[in-house]
User: Which sequence fits this backbone?
């Protein structure tokens, strides 16, 4: 068995693994990465963030074509099959893989394809698909193996019409009706995508409101717009059993309801990819969700073994994973370290949602004297031009100091718009002020101009 020695070995090539490996290589370390799949990029590129967002973009274009009066001159509304739309999204995945493969080559990082397993605290055995094996010895090891959909044992995922959020990307038909179980971020995003293609969707929520971590007003807006597109949201429901037959799927709920659809998508929870790592060989143990506990520097109980990204749990966002990976390698490189927090949320429903900072509920509970500044997109010239008039920008600010406490955005380009407010929130002292948006000239017409409109609205509320 060939033995290779490295300063750093990273397991996984998703955002967390990639940033950790490249950061270490940039600082002169000899680095290797191990990837279980036959191409780099991790679940983010192949099964999660990239394909679902590319798919969403295609669907959004179809929706615009079918609802825009100008296109009626070209022809009647068109129906697009799910596999056909999916095919267009795959081009993005190929571009991402090509680009990321180049990153590793340019930085002289060795890439091993296969399943990694700990032999001891400094040694990993990599087995490829052809029963070949190699040993990698490293001073530092970073576990960035990501997560996969949680798949309960009493649901038959081998049935051709029962999917999880990974296998849904291989659908070869377009269902007329779909039941989605789980109304978190993934479930809500797929409810938007399928309803945008004209599929009748039942979205089963095990809780009493959609995405309860969001600002209440934004959560309510999402519920409204999903219903507008034909999604039936069922709150406070749990499944008793799920049966697949030749005609589709029947879901029996504990409340006594029975639902039937052409297909079923399980979108309720994720599990850390730790079961094949041989953690028992080094004395590490994952929690009940397959996640590795870490300290405030992303170190496991073994100080030279780090863990980052989805495999450590919250917040399970590609953006956070990328920063965590870089920060973990900063720690063992003795560079300035940053624990990743104050993370903006980006939820790619149709319309999308993004927020950073505190919500009204949190500020009220903390008895912070805040005020609300808001702008509705329907009143902005840019939104009227594009036709994307749904949504709003809401800024929460301190009544006395005018410090910005939270930004909440719902509508087209929300995940881009939020970063303007985020930049001002991060400024020290008095530079973090609502007045910035009054004293700064914005391009016109733009979506960013909503900050000026909202700030004026907020200042008008003060007395």
Assistant:
């Amino acid at each position: 068995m060939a033995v290779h020695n490295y300063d750093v070995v990273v397991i996984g090539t998703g955002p967390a693994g990639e940033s950790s490996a490249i950061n270490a290589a940039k600082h002169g370390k000899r680095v290797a990465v191990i990837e279980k799949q036959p191409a780099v990029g991790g679940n983010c590129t192949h099964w999660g963030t990239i394909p679902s967002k590319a798919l969403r973009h295609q669907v959004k274009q179809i929706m615009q074509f079918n609802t825009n009066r100008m296109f009626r001159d070209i022809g009647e509304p068109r129906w697009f099959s799910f596999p056909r739309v999916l095919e267009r999204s795959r081009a993005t995945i190929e571009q991402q893989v090509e680009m990321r493969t180049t990153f590793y080559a340019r930085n002289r990082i060795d890439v091993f394809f296969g399943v990694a397993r700990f032999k001891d605290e400094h040694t990993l055995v990599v087995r490829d698909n052809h029963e070949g094996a190699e040993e990698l010895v490293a001073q530092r090891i970073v576990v960035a193996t990501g997560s996969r959909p949680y798949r309960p044992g009493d649901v038959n995922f081998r049935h051709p019409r029962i999917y999880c959020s990974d296998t849904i990307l291989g659908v070869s038909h377009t269902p007329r009706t779909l039941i989605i179980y789980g109304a978190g971020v993934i479930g809500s995003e797929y409810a938007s995508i399928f309803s945008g293609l004209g599929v009748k969707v039942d979205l089963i929520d095990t809780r009493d409101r959609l995405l309860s971590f969001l600002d209440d007003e934004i959560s309510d807006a999402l519920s409204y717009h999903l219903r507008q597109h034909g999604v039936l949201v069922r709150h406070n429901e749990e499944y008793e059993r799920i049966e697949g037959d030749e005609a589709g799927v029947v879901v029996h709920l504990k409340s006594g309801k029975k639902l039937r659809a052409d297909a079923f998508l399980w979108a309720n929870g994720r599990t850390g990819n730790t079961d094949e790592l041989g953690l028992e060989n080094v004395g590490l143990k994952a929690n009940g969700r397959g996640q590795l506990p870490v300290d405030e520097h992303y170190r496991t109980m073994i100080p030279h073994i780090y863990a980052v990204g989805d495999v450590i749990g919250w917040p399970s966002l590609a953006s956070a994973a990328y920063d965590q990976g870089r920060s973990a390698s900063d720690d063992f490189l003795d560079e300035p370290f940053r624990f990743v927090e104050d993370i903006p949320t980006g939820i790619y429903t149709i319309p999308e949602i993004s927020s950073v900072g505190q919500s009204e509920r949190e500020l009220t509970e903390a008895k912070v004297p805040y005020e609300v500044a808001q702008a509705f997109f329907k009143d902005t010239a840019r939104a009227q031009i594009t036709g994307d008039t749904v949504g709003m920008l809401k800024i929460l600010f301190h009544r006395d100091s005018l410090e910005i406490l939270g930004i909440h955005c719902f509508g087209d380009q929300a995940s881009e718009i939020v970063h303007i407010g985020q930049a001002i929130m991060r400024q020290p002292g008095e530079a973090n002020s609502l007045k910035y948006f009054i004293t700064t000239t914005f391009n016109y017409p733009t979506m960013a101009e909503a900050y000026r409109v909202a700030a004026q609205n907020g200042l008008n509320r003060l007395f």
The chain has three domains: 2-149+271-332, 162-268, 351-460. The longest strand covers residues 133-143. Residues 82-106 form the longest helix (25 residues).
